[in-house]
Amino acid sequence: MSLDAHHFNPKTTTQIHQANGIYVTQVKNNQAIFLKQCKLLPTQSALLAETIRHEKLHGRVITRKAQLFPLDSLSVDSRWQSSGLSVLIVMERETVEIAKQKTTFDTSIM
């Protein structure tokens, strides 16, 4: 199940986890403390896995690099303890618009 960042809260994630569900959601400013911790984690934790994918479509070349980090070393607030949080995904995207020769970069934390 994928969740909108609006639904990324301890109550919802705990319900999914307790029902043996699996979820993916983006961490945004609505959970500012957790987001700050997640941004620091890649500098403090070992990398579990990494993958890079290239796509060319609609006049764009998109390169996505995903890095996975364990969340077990993260000291989260007690309200998150039953949420089943286990892996942080850092997704970096580079998009090149071929006709305009314009490049954009974006990083998402999930």
What does this molecule look like?
This protein has 110 residues and is of the alpha+beta class. 20% of the residues lie in helices and 39% in strands. It is built from two helices and six strands, in the order βαβαββββ. The strands form two sheets. Strands 3-4-5-6 form a four-stranded antiparallel β-sheet, covered by helices on one side. The protein has a two-stranded parallel sheet with strand order 1-2. Strand 1, helix 1 and strand 2 form a beta-alpha-beta unit. The model has no long low-confidence stretch (mean pLDDT 92).
What are its keywords?
6 strands, 2 helices, two-stranded parallel ribbon, 110 residues, alpha+beta, four-stranded antiparallel sheet
